[in-house]
Fold each of these.
Amino acid sequence: MKLSTPLLLSALASGASAQGGPYSQCGGTGWTGATTCQSGWTCIYSNPYYSQCLPSTSSSSTSSKASSSSQSGSSSSSTSSSTSSTKTSSASSTATPSSTPTVGPSRLTGKLPALGWNGWNAYGCAISADKVLAAANSFVSLGLQDAGYQYVNIDDCWAEQARDSTTNSIVPDPTKFPNGISGLAAQVHALGLKIGIYGDAGTATCSGFPGSLGYENVDAASFASWGIDYLKYDNCNVPSNWTDSGNPPGGDWYNSNSAIRYRQMTAALVAQSQPIQYNLCIWGNANVWQWGARVGHSWRMSGDSSATWSYITSIINTNVQYLDAVNFFAHNDMDMMEIGNGALTLAEQRTHFAAWAFLKSPILLGTDLSQLNSTQISIITNSELLAFHQDPNIGTPANPFTSSTSSGTTTPPEFYAGASSKGIHVFVINTAGSTATKTMKFVDVPGLNATSSQSFKVHDMWSSSDLGTFTTSYGVSVGAHDTVAVLVTPV
Ligand SMILES: *[C@@H]1O[C@H](CO)[C@@H](O)[C@H](O)[C@H]1NC(C)=O
Ligand SMILES: *[C@@H]1O[C@H](CO)[C@@H](O)[C@H](O)[C@H]1NC(C)=O
Ligand SMILES: *[C@@H]1O[C@H](CO)[C@@H](O)[C@H](O)[C@H]1NC(C)=O
């Protein structure tokens, strides 16, 4: 019987394909798909590259989607009533919701890629309230908060092994978090910052603490009551009947078992009274870039990061294949930062930060912030790269382009261009292990519309300085694994 729900949904979805579904694209430069939206949704212009089907009534998605999911009949009523019923009813072990929610994520959070910190890369399971609070205080003292960093996020290992036997709630570990998560959240909020937590779409987290599959409503209610602003939702310990083997019903990965596990948490989160940003830590599985924006605000494109040049280049190379998925409320997550960890050179740390910024990945620092030196602080607080990343008017990332000056293809690509509120930016990664001269011909740069002998002003984003006026092309010597970042403006 369970199989009938995804089959029914996919049949309905394909019948309605002439009109855009919830949160789907419905216009923009080069767009050839549907330009109208299904009933209850309106095609809203975001920018020249993107229009999107949004709820017809308001900016908040919470109220309108119960009605928009009416095609699945009984499921919408169980979704809207499930918060209270789960809390009172289920001491039973597998309280899996019987419906498949179609509700989308909140539009009150997650428009721009998150900027913050997560404790995992620095501390792993050895997390505590003291370490989280130290990171929050460093946001203030090191100028990170002024630069726009907001989220201080707890990863795995914050809970006790067993749920509360009466309420079914996850219980914070009282040794690590003596004031609970709510006490810590209050301290973080008092600094003007936001706090994130970690959960898992399986029976246990990756480190073996309680998973939220079947407990989405009770856990989302706990997170909300503690004051949580952000959820990273991992993908460990998934029962075999909840995994995907082969293609999902109708070939639509939105109806895969993986997506449905994440959709159940979407519905639970949007039923709360405050917006919670939702990161799908799904490791690039189930073609998540195709449906991630209908379910959450950002989604992991890979397994865990490591503090190596090979990780940085391989995740850039993966991500550049799926940049069409990136826009406001929709971010490919290249995983937490490794600046400050391992043996990355300063050039590699600059490339790491620049690429996460120009591809609009969440940037969550992953180190003991008190150990960063002044050069590293200046990298992660670079105001012009952060302004590109956080641009309120343009949601699309920079994209690779073919440069007629390069001698061959590289992995990852070396030349990228993208628009911001200030104009057209070019980013060039030297993927080689030695210094090389990189030349951009202005005619090659998408968006500049240059003629062959036109002059442009070139401005260095790293140093916030004007480099001069150049005709036809601009060339610069770039150190091994370093990245050039410039703004190019017509004279
Ligand atoms: C997997 O099995 C559990 C326990 O029988 C059940 O509650 C759940 O609905 C099943 N999941 C799917 C996707 O069929
Ligand atoms: C900061 O650390 C990097 C290594 O990560 C080093 O190359 C650089 O010289 C240091 N800068 C300062 C100012 O100490
Ligand atoms: C380049 O041309 C496109 C399409 O014709 C236009 O939208 C864009 O504004 C132009 N860019 C500049 C920098 O003039």
Amino acid sequence: MTDVLRGREFLHTPGPTNIPDRILRAMHKAAVDFTAPPFVAMTRSCFEDLKPIFQTQGPVFMYAANGHGAWEAALSNTMSPGDHILVPETGNFSLKWGMMAESLGLVIEHLPGDWRHGIDPEAVEQHLREDDEGRIKAVLMIHIDTATGIISDVPAVRQAMDNANHGALFMVDTIASLATVEFQMDNWGVDVALAASQKGLMCPPGIGLTACSEKALHATQSARLPRNYWDWRERMTDAQYIRFCGTAPIHLLYGLREALDMLAEEGLPRIVARHERLASAIRAAVDVWCGEGGMAFNAVVPGQRSNSITAIRVPPGYDAEEVRTAARERFQVALGGGLEQLKGDVFRIGHMGDLNEPMILGALGGVEAALQTLNIPHGRGGVTAAIDYLVAN
Ligand SMILES: *Cc1c(COP(=O)(O)O)cnc(C)c1O
């Protein structure tokens, strides 16, 4: 071993994700007058080309912010103090979005979850049926909860709301799912979808996005939560200084423009298929690791294991943080750790964005080497299983 590191670190944190060289180069430009016509035209094209990514006809709003900013934008634009919202618990991200809502003056109704299963649509339906007076104004759903590696079923939750004949707004956090798995905002009846630049969109962190339905735009007229920076109403203009509530994030927009071109070249169906294939190779490896000695997928139900992030439990008595440290320091693979109640129990392999087969095999090799280094009981040959999967599919 040497302390001089060569080559690239393999980045498998579940955000930020790898930024393609094309995007980095696209940002390597001098600053410009962001109110001059060429840049205004480019900005407008970004707003337009984001719509097919969300699969919506409605407007998309862009903030110089991360995902937390998009969370606050979604809430502050549509809710009033004291409004109730329903938060099905899927993991740390549902918890944190709910806590933010609470701090803004909303009242949270929790649907408890065990962080190992997706949202139960029947529980949503039942809870909404009991809300005769319509006090619940929104359902907050995390499509892929990055803390747990679990994907929940958006159309099924929509169906549950419809079955209960409930008029709440349907808000979906697609931060870890947009441009990695299927998401159809309009067809699936989503009122607010939100995202951030540094996950499936392959950009640096710093752009938060909200996409809105007619119903959400209508709700913003009567919503009474204080808002200024986030206010959609102010931002519906081509006047650059107003639509960004100040200086536009010029270089992030150059990057986003390139990312949108790259997404269009590959096309959403192929992007979704690539994520599915690479995630399946990872799951083939994890299956082998789990075969002996007590490692496990955090997501109990195979169909709920997401294609953008895999959360893996170490056997009881072992520390997942050590896997993370060994993978990073000895084998140059950066992983995610367990968040909150999963800390120490779970490590996470992010697999969204600009990735291909050898990158996945490299990451799996680093993880398997870390497991071996630490003598964590696991089935040997995970990387071979991943290769077998990729060869056969
Ligand atoms: C990453 C992530 C967030 C938080 O995004 P930030 O940009 O870190 O604020 C929220 N929700 C999900 C599902 C995420 O994956």
Amino acid sequence: MTDLGTHGEAGLERGRVDLQRYGHALMGTYGEPMRVLTRGEGSWVWDADGNRYLDLLGGIAVNALGHGHPAWVAAIAQQAATLAHTSNFFATEPQIRLAERLLELAQAPHGSRVFFCNSGTEANEAAFKMARKTGKRTVIALEGGFHGRSMGALSMTHKEALRAPFAPLLEHMVFVPRDDVDALKAAVAENAADLAAIILEPIQGESGVRPLSHAFLAMARELTLRHEALLVMDEVQTGVARTGAWFAHQLAGIQPDVMTLAKGLGGGFPIGAVIAFGEKAGGLLVKGDHGTTFGGNALAAAAANATLDVIQEQDLLAHAKTVGEHLRTSLEALDGVVEVRGEGLMLGIGLAAPVSAAVAKAAVDAGFIVNPPSPDTIRLVPALTLTTAEADLFIAWMAEHATRLISEGSA
Ligand SMILES: *Cc1c(COP(=O)(O)O)cnc(C)c1O
């Protein structure tokens, strides 16, 4: 194994002082940060004390090209120096080009349209407003689903701990168990006359990397077509090459009416998008219905265009598939690992005991950034440029150390 530097308690003095300032100045919405990070390069980041970490979380599926990719940096610098922001009273070429490219990559039919925003929750707010514009009200969402923290997106998010402090949320929401075809059919039958939309993530991210079966996705498609409701695919985490396809719904061979994007789209620059497929969905939001000051400004669009350029030029779809399969087969073979879920470079390592928090903490102390979305799951959503050699460093650490933590946890 290569030397990852020291990550012990003695090396943390400077980071500790910064974290004290953090605690006094920032709202406590995220709990205590693991480290203070100062720079990154590719799949590596450094903390305030000079320790190096292999970043297998990628800013939660955001840093698609890793940190500081030269083409991405150059595109942002160039656009910033040329024209960064204009307001939506004006159009810019980077924004038009990005919209055209997304429609093409999504194989969207004639009449499809794009709306740009700045985040995942905003993209889902726009999708929710599209659902309301159908003239019907009921939205079906899934247990375990996550769609964001603003009030519309939160209303479509199932987790009670996130919802309860902010009740009352929007009404006419119906939740069904994930991947339960019969429950979905029953919920649709019960709400047939008022069904505006079904929203789902093709692979649930925040609840622990849980893919929906292609049969369930096909049934959601069939039912929404039959009842003239929108099928909204929340691809905020799964979209933009993360799963080895441009968009995860393409793996299931279906096309939604609405797709929401954010995380990986700008490669670390904030941007979100809503794709409306076809004339009907494309025409739901009309002049005056929706807007945002920053959405799709030239700087954000240039960052996203650069991200798509690199993904295309380096065929990161194929690369994500290859490195993802390598991680999957290697990790699946370890004692204490029950299964590895997901596609491409969106992987959930299912542990034999509910020790994911302890494993994630031991990992960061050893120089690996991973994340425990559920008690028995470690999530990997690294840069799409992660190399097999880098993946092997983590596999070796898991083989040496995590197996022991898991067996201690189940004892
Ligand atoms: C992260 C996420 C969101 C929310 O995105 P923000 O940019 O944090 O608002 C919505 N949906 C899914 C599937 C996500 O993973």
Amino acid sequence: MAINLEAYKKILEELEPFHAKLVAVSKTKPAEDISALYEAGQRIFGENYVQEMTEKQAQLPADIEWHFIGHLQSNKVKYIAPFVHTIHAVDSLKLLQEINKQAAKHQRVINCLLQVHIADEETKFGMDEKEIEELLRTVTTNANAYSNTKIVGLMGMATNTDDNAQVQSEFHQLHDIFTRLANTYLQGNTDFKELSIGMSADYPLALKEGSTMVRIGSLLFGKRNYSQN
Ligand SMILES: *Cc1c(COP(=O)(O)O)cnc(C)c1O
């Protein structure tokens, strides 16, 4: 249980020229590790599990910006709606509607990123471009019904492979989708500006392809041991 402050500083320096934000992914790691990185100046933390995130949020400083980055079930939105800042992996209209409903109960606006399926693997969640277009058409034509959510961009995960060319091409594809959507359904919408791509293994490629938010865990907090969780 030790955070890597050298890696933290190095990553911040690498992000600087791209004006990209760091989401420190603290899933499975204890609150003390988050506190230690908080002391070093980090404010944005990402979690994948609802219960773990609510438990940590309750014991950590109130000015932490919590990002939910994992697959979110509609019936669990209510637990994080009081405090979550951004939800990265919105993959259906139904989920967006539930987020809006729960955010409204707390008179909040929750930032949402739409998850795009770019990887080869069957297991990764997300929508294809057509599904995203449909969702955006619905939302933009009923804007009043979605006033407690703000669609701020897209999120994706590349295939878990050593083939850099493949990873880069998947990120590139995502950036193209982002640009097309921004120019069609979201014309003039300045909220739609984030591209959440890049993890410990591939964030340098993601930055080259226009990432504005990298989600980094193991480089900062060390390898995760799921058997203890
Ligand atoms: C765990 C996780 C990350 C961070 O992964 P690392 O390889 O540890 O940097 C990023 N994004 C998502 C969606 C994750 O689940």
